[in-house]
Amino acid sequence: MTRKLLGKISLYLITIFLVGSLNFALIHLMPGDAMVHLLGEEGYAYLSRDIENLNALKADFGMDGSLVKRYERYVIKALTGEWGWSFYYGRPVADIVAQRLQWTLLLLLPAVLLSTLLGGSIGAISGWKSRSSRAERLLPLFFLFLYATPGYCIGLLLLAAAAHTESFPIGGMMGADATLWRVICHMALPLTVLTIHGTAYKFMIMRNAVRQELNMPYVLTALAKGLTEHQVLFCHILKNTFPPYISVVALNLGFMVGGSLLVEVVFSWQGMGTLIYQAVLSRDFPLLSGTLMVICLSVLAANMAADLLYALSDPRIKEGSCGSYWN
Question: Which of 43, 79, 256, 324 shows its CA 20 to 30 Å from the CA of 180?
């Protein structure tokens, strides 16, 4: 088991290296010159007359040399934790990312928790009663429509409704009185969007998983013993659907991270989404590289935690009788 666990960790390390290399390639192949955004068109044209000073300025910001040299410096800085200096904000990238990441987690973690509980419970009940009524058959279509609709589109609709009703703040993170209640009010709409979108996907997964278990012999045996439908569903069926559901939640976390970035831009939530958006507009390469790498590490950490929870929750994997998962 230890050897298999080390092999799993090595795969994650290789994934981090590949994603980091792809991150570097995508950023440095973007059109446009970062020096133009840094100096302005007039300043860049004026400084272009003095090639030595322009090259010296590029060297100060780490934009000199060939692409190979830049990649070498990128790998060294990534390993040492020195993510560079933000051109746009004039601060270390690590400090900016640490400040903005906490606001994204404040929005994302409750959304993941709520969508996991709502999607799992509603999906389990709908899967058990899938043939009971027409409403139960129409419910999957409703959630499929919600999942097919991009999160930022749902956000724009809620934003328009909130602007007319004036019941919730339509942007930002806090008012003039920066109290906890004001922060909760401002995060209500983006949290609702992320929860709805995440619940729709997890509902469909849990519903299909429960329906696959309905015809298993242990379900018929439990009903024959006189157990109620509630006991069979929540004490027997969910035990078998829980391990794969954990993996689904972890994989869906990556999609929720991507969706939360766009939702943050819609609601002007000052988290990682608006930070990446501003870094792209300003061609702030160090900041963009640091933010994308943090998101990659967060998703991989969630998937690794799901692997461990999967092994702990399923005795077959823990005892090695289903060892292909760890191979």
Answer: 256
Computed over every residue of the chain, the mean pLDDT equals 79
Structure tokens at 237: 């069926």
Domain count, the chain: 2
Domain boundary residue, one of 59, 80, 101:
80
Given a contact cutoff of 8 angstroms between Cβ atoms, the answer to whether 151 and 259 are in contact is yes
Question: What is the domain extent for residue 170?
Answer: 93-325
**Distance between CA atoms of 172 and 49, rounded to whole angstroms?**
43
DSSP 50: -
Of 32-36, 50-54, 102-106, 303-307, the range with the highest mean pLDDT is: 102-106
Q: Residues with Cβ < 8 Å from 310, sequence gap 6 or more?
A: 243, 246, 247, 317, 325
Domain identity same for 10 and 146: no
70 plus 99 within the same structural domain? no
Q: Phi and psi (nearest 5°) for 92? A: -60, 140
- 41 and 173: one domain? no
d(CA 142, CA 199): 12
The answer to whether the beta carbons of residues 311 and 113 sit under 8 Å apart is no
Tell me: do 217 and 298 sit in the same domain: yes
Is residue 62 a contact partner of residue 84, using CB atoms and an 8 Å limit?
yes
Largest CA distance in the chain: 89
From CA 119, how far away is CA 143, in angstroms rounded?
10
Whether this model's pTM surpasses 0.85: no
Structure tokens at 130: 């899938």
* CB-based contacts of 288, cutoff 8 Å, min separation 6: 27, 276, 279, 280
Distance CA 34, CA 88 (A): 10
85 three-class SS: strand
